[in-house]
Amino acid sequence: MDLLQRLVTIFAENGYVAVFIALMICGAGLPLPEDITLVAGGVIAGLGYANVHVMFALAMLGVLLGDCAIFLLGHRYGARILRWRFVARILTPSRYAKVQEKFHRYGNRVLFIARFLPGMRTTIYLTAGMTHRVSFPRFLLLDGTAALISVPFWVYLGYFGADNHEWLATWVHRGQASLWLLLGILLLILLFFWWRHRRRSDSYSQRP
Hints:
Mean pLDDT: 82
């Protein structure tokens, strides 16, 4: 929570610009956790330094721009980017092999799953761009859909927990598991509506 407190102080003093810059840094793969950054943005909104809905919109923009920048860098420079010292530190041979294995197992769906894998997110996006496995519009669709689940979760968690540090600390630690649970519930809801639509379609087709 020390990092969260430091970020809250910086964001409260510098506002939306500081949050946006921090999220771009997260997207670049630097050691700044995106979830804690989003929570800190929500906290300053809860303390009255920002509007929470504007913070959510800004956070979505910052997250997507950071992700797209990494993807497009890989897409533009391909395997040559592995010779860059900064990239070589992020995308080590072992990580590259692990990402390739995930693509082989899950296909392009791994781009959606990557939003919920903090340690692998940047390397997955970079690899997807390098290998030209997916078009940019499809990448943006998959990443944006996942961000619409994770970003509001963290921002509004910080907003509602701004005045209760003990509650917030508990849910920040539980956060990733809770996010997976939320994702599972949303998938079950979508499956239910798909099943109900399919059932209605079948009943209409069987009418004389």
